[in-house]
Design goal:
Strand content: 5-15%
Order of helices and strands: HHHHHHHHHHEEHEEEEH
Radius of gyration: 21 Å
CATH superfamily of the largest domain: PhyR, sigma-like (SL) domain
Helix content: 40-55%
Number of helices: 12
CATH architecture of the largest domain: Up-down Bundle
CATH class of the largest domain: Mainly Alpha
Structural class: alpha+beta
Distance between the termini: 40 Å
Number of domains: 2
């Protein structure tokens, strides 16, 4: 960076935005890997342009303008990531899934808590919310995240997009209306708040019940309209009977699995390891991200791309025969 004339302090200042920019780009793109690439491109562009930054806007607004343009360029192809329930209706739990679809189709999980937790609250990094954002036109998506998640002012967003305040406010209203319509169309369990203590207890009970393959305990933990989806397969199911039919039918090989706790998208998550057929330990099988409302589990998303996701979530590449796990994330 020495030939750009950018000072070490300026570079450090830009680098300080990496975490919150990752959260922003993740919401825009639906992929953590693509978000990291977008943030790197943003910072490179910012470093190269720093000598021309005249201070007419705050540094943060200027950096977000660059990040927005990077994301809009990435989204120019019109591709949209999704979750299985965005593509089709639920299927019966007792049937095997069709062949998997391209990994680039799916919204991906984000490791750890919200990357900019100090600036973000509530559902704004949950998988369902990130998937819902993908239904918005890119500029509306950016406007909603900047206003409702990152708390930029209407004037800041208008300046960022190069439009009027009235236009920025209109885009925000349309984006909010689209998300509200999608929530109504989803017709899933009511998103009543779930306190951290309740969520932790439910997560621990779930890990124990799944490892024991205790269908009665799982029935007690799952909301009557809970969902289970299985990217990269388009198959998903709704309701306890179909979830149990899946677990005791096509997924019966999961019996005896072990769950290693982690955190994804601000929710409890687990690395699932299935027992080897020769009884010599456990192999990676899925990353399960669990959602809650009230005192029930409302959704489980089981991502099968363990080769890429387990290292990202710092999960071991295998478990030994004598593993003993604490269900606390």
């Amino acid at each position: 960076m020495g030939d750009t004339g950018v000072s070490a302090a300026a570079v450090d200042g830009l680098e300080g935005y990496r975490g919150e920019l990752t959260g922003y780009c993740y919401r825009m793109l639906g992929s953590y890997a693509e978000a990291e690439d977008a943030v790197q491109e943003t910072l490179v562009r910012a470093w190269r342009s720093m000598d021309g930054f005249e201070g007419r806007s705050a540094l943060r607004s200027w950096v977000y303008r660059i990040a927005t343009n990077v994301c809009l360029d990435a989204l120019a192809s019109g591709k949209r990531r999704a979750l299985p329930m965005d593509l089709s209706g639920p299927s019966q739990g007792g049937t095997a899934p069709a062949p998997p679809k391209d990994a680039a189709l799916w919204v991906e999980p984000c490791p750890g808590d919200d990357p900019e937790a100090s600036a973000t609250m509530g559902e704004s990094v949950r998988l369902a919310f990130v998937a819902a954002l993908q239904h918005l036109p890119p500029k509306q998506r950016a406007t909603l995240v900047l206003r409702d998640v990152l708390r930029f002012s209407a004037r800041e967003v208008a300046d960022l997009h190069g439009c009027t305040v009235a236009s920025a406010n209109s885009a925000l209203q349309r984006a909010r209306a689209t998300l509200a319509d999608r929530r109504r169309a989803a017709d899933g369990p009511a998103a009543r708040p779930c306190g951290d203590n309740v969520r932790q207890v439910l997560a621990e009970r779930y890990a124990t019940a799944f490892s024991r393959y205790d269908m009665e305990e799982l029935k007690m933990l799952l909301h009557v309209d809970a969902t289970l989806c299985l990217p990269p397969y388009a198959k998903w199911m709704r309701g306890v009977p179909d979830i149990q039919a899946w677990l005791t039918g096509p997924a019966i090989g999961c019996r005896g699995s072990r769950l290693v706790p982690t955190t994804a998208n601000g929710s409890p998550a687990f690395g699932q390891y299935r027992p080897r057929s020769d009884g010599t330990g456990y192999v990676p099988w899925a990353l399960q991200v669990v959602d809650f409302a009230g005192d029930r589990i409302t959704g489980i998303t089981a991502f099968r791309d363990t080769e890429r996701l387990f290292p990202l979530f710092a999960l071991p590449d295998h478990l030994g025969e004598d593993v003993r796990l604490d269900a606390r994330a």
